[in-house]
């Protein structure tokens, strides 16, 4: 499996496109600029199978409906944010004048708990990492040594907790109990900024 990071939109949210040897793809957090996502998929000749949402803030869902319409694929979202896609107050778009009030269709696949999921030949673990938002999850591909952490853990930082449903103590607990115990060489692919590793964040992240 290979993955490509596409920073999208005014806040440069990282969308990740994962591809396997069969030309199948998963799309994580299509936050904006649908055309960039479409062009990448077309240029690579990929077949998307699903959209994975680390959480439902506006900067992670801006191109969601266009992606689903184009490729007729389902979106996966945690149950704690199942009503956020259509609610600008909860997804935050009502409070940022640089974007429209986002009202997306509900997710087709609701994640109710930590679990292993297989989509095509992709196999990964859903790890609940709330705090930045109540339904935040991370997608852990153990065999590839990478976790897509959304806005929980960043290079040298952690997610903000001043938005609807945020809680810093819960976020720190999530990071310490769910992310830092992973193998130190695990690559952390965050929702914003550069990739890092668990070892690097253990050793140098000032918030931890």
Automatic annotation (TrEMBL):
Query: InterPro entries, from UniProt?
Result: MBL_Glyoxalase_II, Metallo-B-lactamas, RibonucZ/Hydroxyglut_hydro
Question: Is Ribonucleoprotein a UniProt keyword of this protein?
Answer: no
Instruction: Give yes or no: UniProt keyword Zinc.
Output: yes
Q: Which cofactor does it need?
A: Zn(2+)
Q: Which SUPFAM superfamilies match?
A: Metallo-hydrolase/oxidoreductase
Per UniProt, the keywords (alphabetical) are: Hydrolase, Metal-binding, Zinc
Q: Which Gene3D superfamilies match?
A: Ribonuclease Z/Hydroxyacylglutathione hydrolase-like
| Alphabetized Pfam families for the sequence | Lactamase_B
Domain Metallo-beta-lactamase, by residue range, is 12-192
The protein's name is MBL fold metallo-hydrolase
State the organism's lineage.
Bacteria, Bacillati, Bacillota, Bacilli, Bacillales
